[in-house]
Amino acid sequence: MATISVNHLSFSYPTEDGQKPLTLADISATFPNGGFSLLTGPSGSGKSTLMKIISGLYPKFGGLITAGEVRLNDTKISDIPETDRGQLVAMMFQNPNQQFAMDTVERELIFALENQCVAPADMMARVDRALDYVEISQLRHRQLNSLSGGEKQKVALAVIIAMQADTILLDEPFASVDPVARQLLLAKLSRLQHEEHKTIIISDHDLEDYDAYIDHLFVLNDTGDSLVLLNDKAAQQKMATFKRQDTSNQQLLLPKKTDEPIISANNLKLTAGTSTLLTQPKIDFFQHHITLLTGANGTGKSTLLLAISKLHQYNGSLLLNQKEIAKIRPNRLYQQVALVFQDADQQFLNVTVSEELALSLKNSQAPAYFKDRIPKFLEKLQLTQLQDQVVYTLSGGQKKKLQILEMLIMATPVLLFDEPFTGLDFSSLQAVMTIMKQVAKDCQQTMIIVSHQLFGLDALVDYHVTLENKQLQYVEGLA
Amino acid sequence: MNPSLKFLLAVLIALEISFTNTWTVNLGLAVIGLLVILSSRPSLKRLVLLFFVPLIPAVALAVAILLQSNAGIHFALVLFTRIYAYVFVGSAATLTTSVADLVMSLEQNAHIPSKFAYGFLGAFNLLPKIVSEVNVIRAAGNMRGQALHIWSPQLYFKAILASLDWSENLAEAMTSHGFSEDAPRTYFKQIRIRWWDWLIVIGSLALLQVALFGLHLQ
Known about the structure:
The structure holds two protein chains of two kinds. By secondary structure, chain A is of the alpha/beta class. Chain A has helices spanning 47-54, 82-88, 105-115, 120-133, 149-163, 179-196, 232-241, 301-308, 330-336, 353-362, 367-380, 396-410, 426-442, and strands at residues 4-12, 22-31, 36-40, 64-72, 75-76, 89-92, 167-171, 199-203, 216-220, 227-229, 261-272, 275-286, 290-294, 315-320, 323-324, 337-340, 414-418, 446-450, 463-468, 471-475. Chain A is globular. Chain A starts with a strand and ends with a strand. Chain B starts with a helix and ends with a helix. Chain B is mainly α. In chain B, helix 2 runs parallel beside helix 5 and helix 7 (114-143) crosses helix 8 (153-176). Chain B contains nine helices and no strands. Chain B folds into two domains: 3-103 and 190-217, no CATH class; 114-176, no CATH class. The chains are: A alpha/beta, B mainly alpha. Chains A and B meet through helix 2, helix 3, helix 9, helix 10 and helix 12 of A and helix 7 and helix 8 of B. Chain B: This is Energy-coupling factor transporter transmembrane protein. Chain B: Keywords: Membrane, Transmembrane, Transmembrane helix. Chain B: It is a multi-pass membrane protein. Chain B: The chain crosses the membrane at residues 6-35, 47-67, 73-95, 195-217.
């Protein structure tokens, strides 16, 4: 049982020239004991920072508390010995790839229990129970590297359950998790709250699906200087604007006979480790169209995009303009196909925002088109003020917007997007989609988009392909 | 055999043969090493590599001695066999031990600080990721019209940046999973040193002395 209180907290990431711009400025709030609290706010407002301060990771791993404090049951977080902290607060991270130290699921759980000095004889029972609770016993001996984003988040939750932490912090945990897995995780968290009286704090910019679960809604504003607990009525109103748009009856067309295929798969087989992800007798993706690709976690959507980009081996045939992708030289291939990576950091080659944009413009296939439009795009994406900033210091959402923009500027004929909308708040999402649609039309691009988030996509995409039972198939419905 | 003692034994043997000039002992050690390697049923490819990779430095050294110095055939033979003894004895230790076991043994038996043990294990688990990351960086470069060659500083800048990022995340992940430097921990898998581990170490070293001195006296 734990009450977390934030008292007049100010936090800064000092810059190299000695300045201390405040990421969080004089914020106060109390997260009630045993409650399920949701912390929301636009991309870049400092939600992750606040979560890491509460978990005790900051300022140990970065930044500086310039004023105020965070208390856990009247004890300052920094005064709690690290060895005791695991039982009090545990955290699930935004990036599922970066929260494990060991190689397999079971070893990671054991590692956490060893750190807590659990008696070896009790360990297996706790591991069994935690895996069982999250319904992932079958993943027990799997390599963590081979799991999908959603599976990794389930493992992360299992670790937290095994550690029996009192307060569970989740920092945008569902960014790369499909709706089914998301519902499962939310239901598990709700059970933990009600049956085991855990205190749960989730940060998320997207409020869909939460209204059945949460007790309190906290809002951090975009400049990080106000954190308020909304009253029930205001909370209801805010949630209502995020109600899942009913996508179930939105209809798309199926490809027409006259459509020109640009990417064709024949007897394509994709594998990850020892498991087969896809066996596809035949499918085409069509030129000058935007195709949405959906499917549950771990079914191989990202792997397919990687295969088309020659970053994952495949069996069978995968043709781009009638040429076998495996046989196209990389520099040739990447003039025709580019991938917007799931992890934005992988895309960046330079240091500052303006350098990144300049590189794209220099090598763009449509420089004249973009030269005049870049300032307008930057403004729409709210990146204009950030041009001198180091790309790696941008927030998750800002990175994503910059990444998408710089890849659009390249004007590569085929552009693949792997979860481009994660971490984007509502207005950013709208801006990004408008720009994608415009560029695709003006530059006659072909796009394939993998996305869990379907909101507003009916206006962007032409066709919808689902990946289910190891098969790709065109469908008419969006959901 | 206990992993820490196994590695200690391999290092001591390597050290000792660095200062001795008996090629028959080197050959004997290489053969014993090979037998241990074979007992772990390695793949044919690995076995072939084990024979051919040391051949390059071994031949180079032997030829250099024969042509450039007047130390004679005997010394060339000593150096040639010494390289094979190093490689086979070393491989006999590494190929029969999993990294996880070695790290746990180093932590529990050799009492090296746990942050080194787990830092090493974490870094080892990152190795395959580093290889694929370099491929991704080069592809990302090509996609932006920038060819990154194996000698491009940008490639290394990105790779180092990614590694720094990972190491930071690894440290955060370990901390959030309750790991704390120098704090006491329990061990699910206890790794013990048993009497026969010592017997093997002492016995092997004693045999080595007998062999070296015996042959030396002849």
